[in-house]
């Protein structure tokens, strides 16, 4: 069999062919679904082949990016006849919300974001509550109706920001959303005692700028990730009573008023303990936690850091966030600590808020000298990073005497100092 090069006229003809238009409708629909709604709509003028394609493709419409163009949003929304994949709506009036949401439910909405405008708070339309197609819901400044029964039967992800919640409503949401996988609550925790229980929940993120006396996580057999940031942690008690699959925990603020991990308190002889402002907190050892993020403040008890790390014997990834410079008197002497068991498993260390002072150096020196499989230490520096600073730090932490020959030490300038906790992302040093 021989191959011949096509003639120049044949090649020219091939170059002029509209190969995309030859694709089947299902593929073109998929391509159009990833375009901004305005751009997808403009394809209807290309040819008769494209005239109605965008109307039948899954719609992804971001009203927030079209803020102030409500008539344009309405024209796009109602001209489109196909299913709705993703819809973000800025809620100006009740009539606007009800009309859009009712139509979106009929057309199989999968991902919906409703955003209160300014200080305007809206009530969730009743037509949305029994929606079977909805998999992801995000609300800002919204309110749930007073009477709730079975809601969101197939919802997998719920993100609430500045939404009024009470324990009864929270209980209804968790008990009726049987498929709920991810829950983010941002400034929604109004009661002084918050209790969360769910058999399906895998990821939980809580942030509260108001006072919370006690936060209880119980009966969560599938919980794998728990992130939290609370106002006034020194007055907040945190209890994680039943989370046998928990692998990520953070940010664990080491000056919580009380902290309990596990179903029961244990005797001092059986379980490590630490003191926070003279309040004894006894921890059950958590062998399943692989990633721990801790927040360090200047008001720590001297023995807190090593004791809390001792409770996670199989820890692989450690994130440390320092809020400000810490006087050396607040830190333990790490060189007096016996080798902790987690050092046999620790692979990465990330510190944000690195000053290079005594407390930072002592901690890193301990980890470098004893971390048997440590692969990478990443430092976000508050101070100016130069070659002399790097050389000085390497020498002070005894990097050349490191236990792990594969260890990599990275320095970065952190222009923004310490970022505030963001529950929307995994804990990543950037």
UniProtKB/TrEMBL annotation:
Q: Which PROSITE patterns match?
A: FBOX (PS50181)
- Name the domain of life: Eukaryota
Chain ranges passing through the membrane: none
CDD domains registered for this protein in UniProt = F-box_AtFBL13-like (cd22160)
Q: Which SUPFAM superfamilies match?
A: F-box domain, L domain-like
Domain called F-box: residue spans: 17-53
PANTHER family membership = F-BOX DOMAIN-CONTAINING PROTEIN, PTHR32141
User: Could you tell me what this protein is called?
Assistant: F-box/RNI-like/FBD-like domains-containing protein
Species name:
Rhynchospora pubera
